[in-house]
Design brief:
Its EC number is 5.1.3.3. The protein has helices spanning 65-68, 243-246, and strands spanning 7-14, 22-29, 32-37, 42-49, 55-57, 78-79, 85-87, 90-93, 96-99, 107-109, 122-126, 129-136, 147-155, 160-169, 173-174, 178-179, 182-183, 197-200, 202-206, 219-220, 232-233, 252-257, 267-273, 279-285, 289-293, 316-321, 336-337, 343-353. The protein is mainly beta.
Length: 354
């Protein structure tokens, strides 16, 4: 829970090139610090100490506006209205079909070509953090209904960064929100994450086709490179000949998390550990799934704040979410939001050391 020990300040980041001034909100609590941009409601930086107390910035990020608007456009952003993929760029809700704005490859990815990650959000101070608001009109990227979204970041001195999502609509629609930060617990620009240890609280995953769209089935992870039920180096099997890894060149899959508490309390989804620094990142969430992407396709298009271009496996994304393409798979958890309901989702990024 956020306390008054958290300081919150904000300042302009850039006054040109993005259509409006971008604000940077900085949250500081004890040895931890996070910064958030109003463009894309972006988690821009995250700083935490190692086991010796030495701080490092843990997110892949850039301060270059051209890269923020270009190849880094999803780094740390809030993704919506629908995170991940929707096959065929169309959905049917209550018998009515809606055509969505395509992003290529026969799909709509991350909410469309002008998704929430490209929008300028309104920001205001919250208790121990910052609250960002966005109004998405009826028909935005093809999705029905107006959607009013609130995302609140709060930071406490114990090292918990909490991301709380809320949304309401005036017409049945789809909502699947996530944050797309890339982590490297050794520090941004320090090399790859293949030596990080990853634990996932999941006994199954959703296999995907060559476009990383789920086929509608779930399969057990036991005996496969997808078994992270105990702490396992990310690089142990990332280059395995398993057919699910050949296409993406690594991990870019959704894991089916253990059932979440009925009272809406966030439960653990993942634990990331960096053995040399001792830094740990525990991810807790109310969401039923987590997409793990190991930056397989990175080719140095983005240069980080330390001047190091990001290559393959420079970071790992741990995107808490509903399942990809869920509108086309009735057995997946529903992403339909109706008038009179409120979409609620909470993810906690718990920093620490071992």
């Amino acid at each position: 829970m956020a306390t008054q020990a958290t300081s919150v300040r904000h300042q302009p980041l850039e006054a040109s090139g993005a259509g409006a001034a971008i604000e940077r909100w900085t949250l500081t609590a004890g040895p931890y610090e996070a910064s958030v941009l109003t463009l894309g409601a972006t988690l821009h930086t995250l700083t935490a100490p190692d086991r010796s107390g030495r701080p490092a910035q843990l997110l892949l990020t850039t301060d270059q506006l051209a890269q923020i608007l270009g190849p880094a456009r999803h780094y740390g952003t809030v993704i919506g209205r629908f995170a991940n993929r929707i096959d065929g760029s169309k959905v049917t809700i209550d018998g009515e079909e809606y055509r969505l704005a395509p992003t290529g490859g026969g799909m709509t990815l991350h909410g469309g070509p002008d998704g929430f990650s490209h929008r300028m959000w309104q920001a205001e101070a919250a208790d121990g953090g910052v609250r960002l608001l966005l109004h998405s009109p009826d028909g935005d990227q093809g999705f029905p209904g107006t959607l009013d979204v609130t995302v609140t970041y709060t930071l406490d001195p114990a090292g918990d960064l909490t991301i709380a999502y809320r949304a309401v609509t005036n017409k049945p629609t789809l909502v699947n929100l996530t944050n797309h930060a890339y982590f490297n617990l050794a520090g941004e620009g320090s090399g790859d994450v293949l030596g990080h240890l990853l634990t996932l609280d999941a006994d199954a995953y959703t296999p995907a086709d060559e476009r990383q769209i789920p086929n509608g089935r779930t399969e057990p992870v036991a005996g496969t490179p997808f078994d992270f039920t105990s702490a396992t180096p990310i690089g142990k099997a990332v280059h395995d000949a398993h057919p699910q890894l050949a296409g993406p060149g690594g991990y870019d899959h959704n894991w089916v998390l253990h059932p979440r508490p009925a009272d809406g309390t966030p439960a653990r989804a993942a634990l990331l550990e960096e053995p040399v620094s001792g830094r740990t990142l525990e991810v807790l969430t109310t969401e039923p799934g987590i997409q793990v992407y190991t930056a397989n396709k990175f080719q140095g298009a983005v240069t980080g704040v330390r001047g190091v271009p990001y290559g393959p496996f420079a970071g790992i994304a741990l995107e808490t979410q509903h399942f990809p393409d869920s509108p086309n798979h009735p057995d997946f958890p529903s992403t339909v939001l109706r008038p009179g309901e409120e979409f609620r989702s909470v993810t906690v990024l718990r920093m620490g050391t071992n």
